[in-house]
Amino acid sequence: MSSSPASSRGLTRRGLFAGSAGLALLVAGCTSSAGQRRDAAATSRQADALAGQVAVQESLVAAYSAAGAASPALAAQIAPLQSQAQQQLTKLKAAAPSAGARRSASSAPSSTAAVPAGQDPKAWLRAQITAAADSHTAACLAQDGARAALLGSIAAGLRGQAGGLS
Amino acid sequence: MADDGTGAGALKAENQALQEVLAAEHVAVWGYGVVGAALGTSADQAAVASQAAHRDLRDQVAELIDSRKVAPVPAEAGYALPFPVLNAHDAASLAVRLEDGVSRALVRLLDQAAGKATRQLAVGALGAAEVRAVSWRAKAGQTPVTSPFPGLPT
Lengths: 166, 154
What we know:
The complex is a heterodimer.
Chain A: H1 10-14, H2 21-24, H3 33-40, H4 44-70, H5 72-95, H6 99-102, H7 121-141, H8 145-164
Helix pairs in contact in A: 4-5, 4-7, 5-8, 7-8
Chain B: H1 8-39, H2 45-67, H3 88-112, H4 116-139
Helix pairs in contact in B: 1-2, 1-3, 3-4
């Protein structure tokens, strides 16, 4: 299939994405100079909030383990997703090095790392994933710069996981 | 809670990031026309729905930019494809590229956003883009179908 008539502008000459000056900026990383300046002025309240999201993600990783334990058939299916949730946790911890000291019990989600009796493990896990995504989304709105970008990206990744489990 | 950055520099950076999202949405709206045409009538509902979602976001972002007395970036007359789109697999692969491109622009917007309302717009759209991307990755036979960090530079 041929593309639409090309214009004389750079994007059409160079390719679908490579020629976009704006998108090309993304390869420089999400921690732009403007973002870094704002991060430098981040309040301790923002740092506390990010530490809280570490706790949320830890609970989600535990939920994956619980769902897998409750359903060996599900365990194989969710193994790649659990691995990604762990990657997210690792990156969150790196962004919130004070998480261990600042994290409070009140910031942890109310769910426990065990599938309630009688519940479908997959449906229960999907609910845990969605709850974690909602929590990261809410936290994203209260952050700025690279922290907001990281939380928003993780929340989106979890929404994709929930959708993939449907 | 983060203070909304209302300084001129912060707003300028946010506007630039919004323009990048708009440019990516122009590409996505155009690209899904190619996806739908390649899929044919058998499976184009997903392409139609995806294109409609991107058209809505494009219009929303353009209106926001325009409301700030800034000229929204226009769409190109056409865009070069990154690879030939000859069948359903190619179409799904292109759809993944389109969603990933939009996600990168939205993460950039989250990084540059000066206000909560803009972050809300970006994070909502980012989640929707990743849900669509998961579906398209599955159709394209890509694994894993999910991404831990949609839109974040690797």
